[in-house]
UniProtKB/TrEMBL annotation:
Keywords: Lipoprotein. It holds the Pfam family Peptidase_Mx1. InterPro entries: LP_HExxH_w_TonB. The keyword Iron-sulfur does not apply. This is Substrate import-associated zinc metallohydrolase lipoprotein. It comes from Marinoscillum luteum. The keyword Lipoprotein applies.
Length: 290
């Protein structure tokens, strides 16, 4: 087992202070190895064994303001929600990858080295709130962990949408977007910072699963993967065409759905080709756990 570096350093410091102040006899500097272990909490041991050693993935739940940009306000999670949150990401994110064909090799080869748990949301200087984030595949941040309730659909969807979205970014970062992906709905992308002016329905008519997906082809890719994996009603919402359209809006929605179907086909083909993973198999495994 590898020791937490901070903890060993803290012991060194205590030992140094003790020797300088002469409070303890010299023998106290020979701290037996097993005594060092008591400074690792049971939670730290669990994280070390199940995440850090197992996947090379660090879980940050203390001093979280180190992991956000200057000016962003965050709080760390309460200690008692950390273990349930670990169980949650294991069940709905890690396990499904381990269970599908070619999924384990992919997961282990693309794990983000850092996972951050925040107690609440990220409050930005401009007054907006960030729900979740990822930095170029190196870090995934979960927000609102203090409100953990896997049975609460809204809470669960926020977490799953975040992690599937962020993890999907690793695919285009490593292997590019599917060929011609950005040409499927070229005209539908929004100019910088204006995606939030669209409604869900306007996004659908343009051929996107969400307003945020219109912000760039990369976000479109990640959003489409995320919705496909977590939304039990994905087909009804985004694929199945209305047969008896009586209105122009209904016809426009059908056109949007045809674009989404085209994107999904490009994405599933790309996953199969570059990762060996059948995204539909992954979706089925995830859906069976919900
Ligand atoms: Zn994104």
């Amino acid at each position: 087992m590898r020791k937490g570096r901070n903890i060993s350093k803290r012991w060194l410091l205590i030992a140094l202070v003790a020797s300088l102040s002469g409070c303890y006899p010299d023998e106290s500097l020979n701290i037996p190895e097993k005594d060092n272990d008591v400074t690792l909490t049971e939670l730290d041991e669990y994280i070390e064994e199940h995440f850090t050693e197992e996947y090379d993935m660090a879980i940050r739940y203390r001093y979280v303001d180190r992991y956000v940009a200057t000016g962003e306000r965050v709080t760390p999670p309460r200690l008692e929600v950390v273990r349930p949150m670990l169980d949650f990401i294991e069940k709905y994110w890690i396990d499904p990858y381990l269970e599908v064909t070619n999924g384990e090799v992919f997961f282990r080869g693309h794990v983000p080295p850092e996972i951050i748990f925040l107690g609440g949301f990220i409050y930005n200087p401009d007054g907006t709130v960030t729900l979740g984030s990822a930095d170029a595949g190196s870090r995934i941040t979960f927000t609102n962990v203090n409100a953990i309730d896997p049975e609460d659909l809204d809470w669960r969807e926020l977490q799953l949408q975040t992690v599937y979205h962020e993890f999907a970014h690793t695919v285009h970062q490593r292997y590019k977007l599917p060929a011609s992906f950005e040409t499927i709905t070229t005209a539908g992308y929004t100019s910088a910072g204006s995606w939030y002016n669209l409604t869900d329905d306007e996004a659908l008519i343009r051929g996107f699963v969400s307003p945020y997906a219109t912000s760039s082809p990369n976000e479109d890719f990640a959003e489409t993967v995320a919705f496909y994996l977590f939304d039990p009603e994905f087909d009804a919402h985004f694929i199945t065409l209305e047969e008896d359209c009586g209105t122009a809006e209904c016809e426009a929605q059908n056109t949007g759905k045809e674009f989404i179907a085209e994107k999904l086909a490009a994405i599933t083909g790309h996953y199969k080709k570059v990762t060996g993973i059948d995204l539909t198999e992954l979706r089925n495994v995830i859906q069976s756990k919900l």
